[in-house]
Amino acid sequence: MMKKMIFISLVLLSGLQLSAQMGWNGVVAHRGGIYNDPAIPENSIAALKKSIELGCYAAEIDVHLTKDLVPVVFHDHEYNGMHVEKVTYNDLKGIRLSNGEPIPTLDQYLKVVMNDPKIRLWIDLKRSQLEPERNVLLAQYVAQVIQQNFAEKRAEIIAPMFDAMIRIKQIAPQVKLYYIGVDKTPGTLRNLGFDGVNLSYKRFDKEYSITETIAAGLYVGAYVIDDPVEMEKQIKNGVHFITTNKPEVLIQVIEKLKKKL
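The structure corresponding to this sequence follows.
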């Protein structure tokens, strides 16, 4: 029992030290970064460029599969009476975001990512509302678009659909996978080649162990945190990534921790 307590303390201490070191960057901009600015709407190319400007580790986006099998970057399943999975990409082209941009494809997003030397793309695979088979189909086409853009080391997948994650691993094994779920142990995920978990920060207190996940050699992501006090708490708990609507606030929290070194 004493050895276990010492081990947990060391893991938490290493997490704090990591968070405070120069160069640590676990800032993931939620939906590209929601800034309450109509000129930078969620999941837009403009939001991605803002995340790049801020120096975020990654921009997180939501991806659906259209009727004609095009992965598009959009959060909701429906817009103005159109269900994204039931219409073609050509049908969606007429929709304009608040800044005038059309709904982007994943391919368009990745081309911007690959023009920057650092930013990564966290792709949230959205669960199909039509049939479960489309979850695997979405993963297949996402993996293909990643490969077409030679983005295997710049695109990272988060999703709660375990079968879809396995499909990504089959097609593009270099792509990092962070599972959104608590039904698989850290050891199981490690043995299957997953890279970590990405969970609501509230779940770590009761449903999943940060220390056991780190001990298994996996990364830990927590979402969605906008409160600076909670950000600091989770960094001290050892999480490697925080998804936030307020990346600028998280950057300030990291700078504050660095000064405490």
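The first helix runs from residue 2 to 20.
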